[in-house]
Every structure is written in C-alpha cells, then in structure tokens.
Design brief:
about 425 residues, alpha+beta, Phosphorylase Kinase, domain 1, Transferase(Phosphotransferase), domain 1, two-stranded antiparallel sheet, globular, phosphoprotein
Length: about 425
C-alpha cells in the first residue's frame, strides 16, 4: 500500500519523480526547530531568476499563530499505539517513511480507543522535515469531508535522535490506486468511481476556491486519494502543497516536483505553478478511472505505456471508445456515462492552462453525471461542458463534438524536450 507516500527527490530507492529541469534554487529555505516556533514552509518557495512573485506573496500563518485542535504526541505514546512500530501493523512504505496502523485514546471518551494511521518520517535530511512542516501547516488549518484529517503530530527526541511523526485518521479501504490495480481483489464499480471523481473534485474545489487563500495540491494522483469505511474519497499527503499566487499575480515559481504522468506540461517546462496544474492532474486521473490503467506503466507494450497517448486514437469513435474501458466493468451499462466523463477529462487536458475549467466548474459537470447515473435517467447533453472560456453556448453538443480539436492537446502532443522520461 502506498498511502501517504511522498514523491519528491532523487533517491534511487524512491518512486520515480519529476526533477527540476534547472535544479533547485539557492533561494529555497527550510524551517528548523520546534513546530510551534516554525513559520510555514508554504512560504519557502524556489524562486526563478526572472520572477519575484514568490517574494511578494502574502504571509501564511505558522502553527503558533493560529488556534489548532491538533494533538501533540510523544514518541513513547506512538510507540505504544503502533506496537513499537512493528511490521505486523505496517500499512505501507513511501519515499519519506513508513505508515503504521495504531490505536490511541479518544479525547472525548478516554476509555475508548480510535484507529489512526501513523507516518514515521525517515532520516533523510532536511527535505523530509520540510514536507513534515508543510503537512502540519496545511492540514492544521483546513477542514473538509474530502480531505484526510490530521489528528496530531510528534516532534520529539529519543535515544535514536529526532523523531518526526504525523497521526492521521485511519482510512480502512486504502487508496484508489490500490483498487484500480489489476492485482486488486476488489475492483471499483462504476458507481464508486463516479463517487470518487466527485469527492476528489470537491476536495480540490475547496483547496482552490473556498478559503481566504488558495492551496495548490501539486501532487494529485490516485495513490493520494484514500477511501474511508463508507468508500468516501479523501485527498491525502500535502507535503508538496504550495500557497497559490497572491492577488495580482498569475503563478508561483517553484522547483518542478511531482509524479511522472500527472504533472501539467507547462509546469514541467517553466516551473510556473497554478491551480490549473491540479486541473490537468485531475484530467489524467479521470482517464485512470475510465481505463483502470496507470498514467505511466513500463510493464505494458511500448505503444500502451503512456495512458494519454494510448487512449487518443480511441476517442473519435463510439465503438472504439469501448475498447479503452476497464475490462472489469460492465461496459454495456456505462458507456454513455464514461463518454461524458471523458469529455470532462478532455476539458482538463487542454494545452493552454487558461482554457481549462476551474475545479468548481468541473465539480458541477461531474455532479450532473452522478445525478443522472443515480436516477438511471436518459443521458442528457452535458450542459456544463458547453461552457467555453467563461461563456455559455446555446448550441447543444454531442460527445464527438466535444472531443479535442486538432489545436488541442490530444492532437498536438506536448513533448517537453528537456524532460527525460525515466
């Protein structure tokens, strides 16, 4: 299980990640010391030579500057909760540490114990600490049904040195990536996939548009979407999140990080990060739900390794489109719904980020698909998909009309020359 896994850095034993084309800026700083004395790592940006927008950003409050319901744990408490970080309770291992299932006392009812997931960061230098600080600062101030809840943290010393741990609500149904895997014994039904698409869109809409400040996730992918006991989807792993651009600015300049196959092409080439980078990643994820395939899979034949390139020839014909649907699904009863979801994916994958819809617009489109599927009503034209660059068209369009044209991404593949695909 790859829950809560960080994908940042160039360690050989870590999952493949996108590395900065020009290297990390020397202007990047990190936060040291006790969490309660630290400033937010969200303000510590990598600044390009020709952009000063990061320097002019508004201040992001540190944990000590705001009220917080986060619990502060000791190492001994978490050792006891996780059977001394035993392998028998290990849930998974990622690039920046292991995750364990644990039991802690409830603050409301001390005799009762609640299940949690405890992430213990490895000792791999400053970067792990940066991710830890960012995670605490982000999840310490946001609260939404579709974001994994951070219960508390630990910044303590023991005989082994400095310990950095995070305690989350436990998500018993693991990650979406796990269930989409061909090895999964519990493949997701189409109705569950639509609900997951809806939940994920809600989470991103909240981060982008429903707070006084904007948070860009920057590492949206199926392994970072976890499922609770009722199969509600929640975004997790905010170690790479960044505060959005301040008023009057168009983007944030950062080092290029993320996971291969999900990162937006303009971000890879320029390092200019916007919320539309998350929108691109969401579009990739929708094709994951439709096909059951990973965005980049080196174990497949050469022509099928890159998901977006593989699906392209199948999008112009209804009969061909059926061939890309996950074979574990009942294709006859979901073809129209899947086509409509592909329309949304195509809107997200437009080459020019300015022409991609906002997450709130995407959420509205997905809501319509979910509603029509739940009611088992005839599939109606997707009205939200008729909106183009902020204006509505009166003309109804079919699925075929809404496929990307020759000037869009699918027919003019974005191939950044400076990016080496591993």
């Amino acid at each position: 299980m790859k829950c809560f896994a960080f994908h940042y850095g160039d360690k050989k034993d870590e999952p493949k990640s996108i590395k900065s084309i020009s290297g990390r800026s020397n202007s990047s700083t990190y936060v040291e010391g006790d969490m309660r004395r630290s400033g937010s790592e969200l303000n510590s940006q990598n600044i390009s030579d020709n952009s000063t927008d990061s320097l002019r950003r508004t201040s992001f409050p540190s944990l000590s500057q705001r009220p917080s319901n986060l619990r502060v744990f000791t190492v001994s408490e978490l050792k006891s909760a996780t059977k001394n970080f035993g392998r028998s309770v290990m849930l998974g291992e990622g690039g920046f540490g292991c995750v364990y299932k644990g039991l802690i006392k409830s603050t409301e009812d001390p005799p009762r114990k609640i299940e949690v997931a405890v992430k213990q960061l490895g000792r791999r230098g400053m970067q792990g600490h940066k991710e830890w600080v960012t995670e605490v600062n982000v999840l310490g101030i946001v609260e939404h049904p579709n974001l994994v809840k951070l219960v508390g943290y630990c910044a303590d010393d023991d005989e082994r040195g400095i310990q950095r741990l995070l305690v989350y609500e436990y998500m018993p149904n693991r990650s979406v990536e796990h269930h989409l895997s061909p090895r999964s014994e519990t493949p997701l039904s189409w109705s569950k996939r639509l609900k997951i698409a809806q939940d994920a869109a809600r989470g991103l809409t909240y981060l982008h548009e429903e707070m006084d400040f904007q948070i860009i996730f920057r590492d949206f992918k199926s392994s970072n979407i976890l499922l609770d006991e009722q199969w509600n989807a929640k975004l997790s792993d905010f170690g790479l999140a960044r505060l959005g651009p301040s008023e009057g600015l168009t983007h944030v300049s950062t080092a290029v990080v993320g996971t291969m196959g999900y990162a937006a092409p303009e971000y890879i080439q320029t390092g200019r990060l916007t919320s539309k980078s998350d929108v691109w990643s969401y579009g990739v994820f929708l094709y994951e739900l439709i096909t059951g395939r990973r965005p980049l899979d080196r174990n497949r034949p050469k022509g099928e390794q890159k998901l977006l390139e593989w699906v392209r020839p199948y999008l112009s014909d209804v009969k061909k489109f059926q061939l890309i649907l996950d074979p574990r699904l009942d294709r006859k009863h979901l073809i129209k719904s899947a086509q409509r979801l592909a329309v949304i994916a195509n809107r997200c994958l437009v080459k020019n980020p300015k022409n991609r819809p906002k997450m709130s617009e995407i959420l509205e489109m997905v809501n319509r698909i979910v509603e029509s599927s739940t009611a088992a009503s005839p599939q109606l034209p997707l009205k939200s998909a008729e909106v183009s660059q902020g204006t509505e068209t009166k003309k109804k369009r079919t699925f075929m009309d809404l496929l990307p044209g020759e000037n869009n991404w699918f027919f003019r593949l974005w191939r950044p020359k400076l990016l080496k695909v591993c």
